[in-house]
Amino acid sequence: MSSVYQINKGINRPIEFRGLKAQYIGFLAGGLVALLLMFSLLYILGVNLYICIALIGSLGTALFTTVIRMSHKYGQYGLLKKNAKRSIPASLSSRSRKLFTHLNSSVWQQVRQ
């Protein structure tokens, strides 16, 4: 009895679903869950059904286009790199030389050994 197994040829490649890569799949899923909760909340509050459908439909379209655009623009790690680059300070300031004099005495002695 022989079984046929498919070989996964996507090793070390990002997860991709219909053009969405890596974390953007999660962003889209989270956004869709938020839209579902928003629709249910609006419906329970008594907002007209057609207004709910129009609002959620337009927000869903905006969500899809934004996430797909970000996925194509930044790729798998580009958005993380962009956010990390924003957190780098423009300059460092030191009001004392004490830190640097301490470095000379303790760290360099360990390096010389």
* Amount of beta strand: under 5%
Q: Spatial order of the strands in the main sheet?
A: 1-2
Distance between the termini: 66 Å
In DSSP terms (H or I, runs of 4 or more residues), the helix count works out at 4
Element pattern in H and E: EEHHHH
Low-confidence residue ranges: none
Structural class by SSE content: mainly alpha
Number of strands: 2
Helix content: 55-70%
Q: Determine the mean pLDDT.
A: 81
Main sheet? Answer: 2 strands, antiparallel
Note the overall shape: flat
Radius of gyration, in Å, reads 26 Å
Explain how this protein is built.
The chain is mostly helical and 113 residues long. The chain has a domain at 16-86. 65% of the residues lie in helices and 4% in strands. It has four helices and two strands. The protein has helices at 23-45, 49-74, 78-86, 98-112; strands at residues 16-17, 20-21. A two-stranded antiparallel ribbon has the order 1-2. Strand 1 and strand 2 (20-21) form a beta hairpin. The chain is flat, with a radius of gyration of 26 Å. It starts with 15 loop residues before the first strand and ends with a helix.
